[in-house]
Design brief:
mainly alpha, 10 helices, about 80% helix
């Protein structure tokens, strides 16, 4: 199987995930600023999660450009990643509806940690199929940013029970770290061409 079918399927799933998240935004009952103010936690949760899902979609696009052959392990690793990303809308809604209470904020962190771990497994499946000298393996190197992200998520999950606001700041920090697509992959693809 080529990567185009895998890319199309992944794009479709991610589009549905974003659609589900936006449908969770309810129209306020009232026509003043106070009605909107009550939706602030829900809207902030949505924006943060939209950014995360967009980051995954953007980096997934770059990631799959390094793939020339798709194996069964890559398919399953990709589905594993999509499964965890598909739970982000649930965690987003729960955290926003409960105004960043400790447990929902920690579960939200878990909904960010699990796709990060699944991303790592997808990386490994691609490298196993294409070799340690492949475009992806060369581009990633030691992948400090990926490893740091997981450490930040674990810290934020624990800190949610101390101060959910610290956790939210950490989640936002990790998102900022990943906003720009991974230039290592773009560079490696350009060198390979």
């Amino acid at each position: 199987m080529g990567r185009d079918r895998l890319t199309a399927f992944s794009d479709g799933v991610i589009a549905v995930i974003i659609t589900i998240m936006v449908l969770e935004l309810k129209v306020p009952h009232g026509a003043d600023w106070n009605a909107l103010r009550g939706l602030a936690p829900i809207f902030f949760s949505y924006v943060l999660s939209f950014v995360y899902v967009a980051i995954y979609w953007n980096n997934h696009h770059h990631f799959l450009h390094t793939v020339t052959r798709v194996s069964g392990s890559i398919l399953w690793a990709n589905n594993h990643l999509l499964f965890w990303i598909s739970l982000v809308p649930f965690a987003t809604g729960w955290m926003g509806e409960n105004e960043f209470a400790p447990l929902p904020t920690a579960i939200y962190g878990l909904s960010l940690l699990m796709p990060a771990l699944a991303w790592y497994l997808l990386q490994k499946a691609i490298i196993r199929k294409h070799g340690t000298q492949s475009v992806l393996a060369t581009a990633l190197g030691r992948d400090l940013k990926g490893k740091m992200s997981s450490v930040f998520y674990v810290a934020a999950i624990a800190l949610a029970f101390v101060s959910p606001w610290i956790s939210l700041a950490i989640y936002a920090l990790v998102a900022v770290m990943w906003l720009i697509p991974d230039r290592r992959i773009e560079h490696a693809i350009a060198v390979e061409s």
